[in-house]
Fold this protein.
Amino acid sequence: MPSNQLPLRQVHLDFHTSPHVPDVGHEFDAETFANAFAAARVNSVTVFAKCHHGHLYYETDSPARHPTLPKGSDMLRQQVDALHARGIRAPIYISVQCDEYAADTHPEWVAIDPEGRRVGRPAGAGTLVPGWQILDMSSPYQEYLAEQTREVLTKFHPVDGIFFDMCWDQVSCSTWAKAKMLERGFDPGKDDDRHRYAHANALAYMERFYKLVKEHQPTAGVYFNSRRLWNIAEEIKFQAQVEIEALPTGGWGYAYFPRHVRMARTFGKPYLGMTARFHKSWADFGGLKPRAALEYESAQMLAHGAGCSIGDQMHPRGTLDPAAYDLIGHAYQRVEAREPWCEGTTPLVDIGVVMTHARTAGKVTAGVDEGVVRMLTQLRHQFNVIDPDADFSRYKLLVLPDETIVDDATAEKLRAYLKYGGAVLGSYFSGVSADGQSSNLLHEYGIVPTGLSPFTTTYLHAGKRVEDGIAPTEHVMYERHVRVAPAPGALSLAVVVEPYFERSWKHFCSHRQTPNDKPTKFSAAVLNEAARCAYVAYPIFGMFARHGSLVYRQLVGNIIKLLLPEPRLTAGGPSGLETSVMRQPQHADRTIVHLLFAIPERRAHNLDIVEDVVPLFDVPVSVKLERKPTRAYLAPEKEAIEFVWSNGRADVRVPQVRTHAMVVFEFE
């Protein structure tokens, strides 16, 4: 395994166990425990030092040791030793802002909201409901946590890693928090300042605890979970790896991991995806998801170069569910067979999607990130999600979706990128002022902006350059746009058709939006070929997430064809087919094309699940390569597959995709 990669077959083993459970660990057997993981092909298990209940699961003089764990039982030590004896890594879990024992014994350490209420448990539900109390890291609790962490690092030296959980930016108006806000120049009376301090405080304790771990064990992994992943650029210096917690059925959905992995993989740190064996979410005792779902979720991680982590929760008595490890073992046998083509891979991409989430005080426009990732994935494009500070030269095309902040420095950086042959596609407020009347990319976009449209809903008629796959009619655009006309030398790709009037109580027509009237002088999309730039006047990516209109995807796809005529990959098959192109530099630049297909269905209220394997047959794939490969085959079967080499592209037909297929191109 490359030194910069995490083990690919991990289990995150929760053990949040109430002090009211009378027989904690009473049936624990270290040999049985470790054998279950070995049989399931697991090579790393995150085990618990301290849970959300605030209890410890190792031999210690601390009164926080779980009260019903047998006297003299050093369960964590037995777990770590038994796993290590089988060559299985054993990083250690420590809960941070959730600690019921500390909250009950030191209620003054609990975070206080601006109305003076203790933070935690379901909001507004009072104290007589189950739920976690949230600790204030400005209070003496931080020292209490540091002492626990030092004890773990000392007792279990050398640790494989520490997983700190529940580490979000927690606003608090406690005595300690207010004093420290004033010390640092924040005004506790201002909401923005309270949030800014909460973020600064989180960064400070992350730095402290990261250094604490590394001082004890320089090679240890360190991860602070529950952080906003869009803040990776700012926080990566405190993270030894990135773990993308994304239980699709647990509230994250099937779009969460693909959105975030495309950013996580750009920072040069090891990264993994984390799903779970549960039918729903964490601690769903007795809940098992279908095999097809876990196959797809783990395959999706591999296809993006990520390690796999599957969440479980051990029974309080210290036993593992055999059915769960049969399920996990089935998935990990497939992962293990594919590892030789997945270790140490890096993505081959054409497009950089420039997002500015971390610079907007936590305010993310609903759906923009999801919409752009869904759209480009369905169009089969290979792309990363990047910060404006990233190296633009790595990409043939940059997409600035809807509300990317383009300050003067970024605008100059974009101009330099264009000068050396790049291309840019922007939309809506990306590089355009919030009133729609000016732009710091005016020359590059080739537009004349005149403000926001007075109409909530308008229509679009595609021109000849972008009409492929779009019916020759007026297509509804459900959201407001920027009124622009093409500047001299630029081309209108699609025209805006306005309605008779804005729908209101004074005048409306039929059930929904007012029908279209006549074409206008305004453009829905503009192409400036000389500058290799295009601009869409609508929030097209967010609209795709919110409304799902095929026309929106087709329009963007046709515009990208004008800017990127030779994409890295093209493929047939249904729109739900996912693709990625990965390279293994350690194997003479071996290139692997991943094809994924699964159908998450709404099988219950607010629950999408993959239950069936739906095969695809005879899927055409064309991939652009730097030189002609010497052979191509399907992995892991190593079954040869014929390819045609022409104009720098290898064309194959993949006979079958059953959830996941891998086409490998090798070079001498």
In short: The chain has a mean pLDDT of 95.
